[in-house]
Queue: 3 jobs
Job 1
Amino acid sequence: MNQNPRRVCLAKIATAHGVRGLVKLAVYANDPAHLEIHGPLYTSETGVETLKVSLHKPMNKYWLANIVGVTDRTAAERLRGTELWLPRDRLPETKEGEHYYADLIGKTVINSEGKDMGKVAAVHNFGAGDLLDIQPQAGKSFYLPFAGEYILEITGTVIRAHIPEGLAE
């Protein structure tokens, strides 16, 4: 059995809320319940430290939550910026056409003619939609929208995509 399975970042502690140790979470999971139902979450991609989260309610773009053992604002403030990770194999399988961002990272991107354009280094969302950060073998990385008109097919280790002219230069 894999002692350190690949992990997926489900949330990040944005800030403390109030004086009783509550925190605001930026939740990346489609279903925030994953933060609770799978037990303690790791505080890094490879470390052994964990935190147990109890969700309270949504608050604008955040979720208000309690971290077990955190009872005051000072302790909550110390957790600001902490990411919360879950082993990938503890998440449900995706449906047809769905993908976990973590599963896209490392895939080779080819254009519609079959030319290797690079590998997916990361997936970002700066507010206007999801972007694949593609790192070619040589040259600067570039962003490709993760949207139907650009992503033609995703199979095994390859993403076939329509790359607009001038984007990958």
Job 2
Amino acid sequence: MTHHVILGAGPAGVIAAETIRKQAPHDTITLVGDEAEPPYSRMAIPYLLMGNIDERGTYLRKNPAHFRDLKVNQIQARVKSVDIALKSVALDNGQAVPYDRLLIATGSCPVRPPIPGMDSAGVYPCWTLQDARHIMALARPGARVLQMGAGFIGCIIMEALMQRGVQLSVVEMGDRMVPRMMGAMAGGMIRDWCETQGVQVFIGTRVEAIEPGTPLKVRLSGGQTVEADLVISATGVKPNIGFLEHSGITCLQGVLTDEHLQTSVPGIYAAGDCAEAFDKVSGKTIVSAIQPNAAEQARVAALNMVGQQVELNGVTQINVLDTLGLISTSFGNWEGVPGGEQVVLTDRGADGGKGRHLSLQFKDDVMVGCNSVGWTEHVGVMRGLVEGAVHLGPWKEVLKQDPTKLMEAYLASAQAQGQWSGAADERRR
């Protein structure tokens, strides 16, 4: 009987435990999580802040007996180290847990900027349910809130804060909003839209210090001092893999895995935000911290842990973001590739309107990436063209003349390659 130990009780860990149990009814499964809560989704925290759900609504599985019924042993502790020679995991509660198969699914952790005053009362990340409780207590209607960071996660938090009726200022050190998924034009349009919605946005600005007190005084690199009742740090995340430093398990940005999600050590696997997996679109290994990837990687890793030879199809590079009602998307190599071509179409909008922007990137006759703002019609088609590496043939020149003809290009090209047999039926509906 095999003992499977899973480090991390987020979406990846939970799906892996369930998959193993389905395939191996008699194996032993231990799920290690470092929070006092039942396993929950961090992606649900903004909806908790908005008041759309209660804390129970964040739980990944609603039945309190779910893991007990599956005979999954749960341990609340933080992992300290992995001993690959002894095949044992050391926990901060003093336990040493032996394993036959190990899954590292420890997710990400917030990046903590080295700013004086980060320990002040009223300064929090927005990462755990406990963080959310602190934020909800302070983010009352009319409260002055300063958020550090306007990346993907930051924009989602911003949406929740605005729904709570706060006075919001956002400080982003990059030269635009959402710099890791948007080019200069697209990021600028998102900023303009946020400002029309009442958000004060500082771009290319750092928080230099936070002076404790009521209110907090936040000193910015531009010379301004902003008073705040609450400061939220949303300056990015990184794979939670510090405990593997001397383990002998190869880590780059994340825990390096092969097509089976196995690490450099046989019998040890990784999945989710802490895993670095091969992406067929970009041709390199990447950490892609989005929940659909975590779920698929967990499924594939779990099947391999029980002896099935299953390969990961690839890593999805997709981001779809709703910023105060403005939809933006980023797929694949949205910045373009060396020797590639691009087409850009921009309508800035008038009188505070949302505007629309579309940027398509090509390598030969394949669309390898794209960006869009305010363009909701063809989101699925953009993803299909990029992930399917669809050869456009003559349709590339059509798109370069008129990038709005994405649907026609997809139907003609993908259908010709047999990638979507239902395309003609879909078009006739």
Job 3
Amino acid sequence: MQRIGIYPGTFDPITLGHADIIRRGSKLVDKLIIGVTTNPSKNPMFSPVERIAMVEREVAAMGLENIEVVGFNALLMHWAEKMGANVIIRGLRAVADFEYEYQMAGMNQQLNENIETVFLMADVSLQPIASKLVKEIAMFGGEIAPFVSAVVRDEVNTRVRKLGKLGDF
């Protein structure tokens, strides 16, 4: 039986932390599907189409062959079933992440006990990185190079210039 894993997220933008989980998660399964989802409550900077393209480009740069990037807007477990997944991969940065993810894993298990959730701890050097914080730093004119690839940094900075920095008013 082929092990199919999914790594869902908004990836707005994709960070070095996400890339670390993708790289490591791809070693645990035969095929890793990165699910780029919508979450309007997170106030996305990039459209779903832009985020999918961003993730596809970053994955291509990693040279990983067993990864597919797919957009989705559905209940995670329904989408996981549709993709034939038997593993959900989630990255953890801190204790606060664990509490939320633990609750979600329990709910997901109630919906489908045949799909396991696997938690991967982010690399210590990448643990503080969060897409939300990357966007906030950029919006206030801070340097985001330590948190994202050079191409993503340029995309975020271009978008910030278009939107206007928060420190400008």
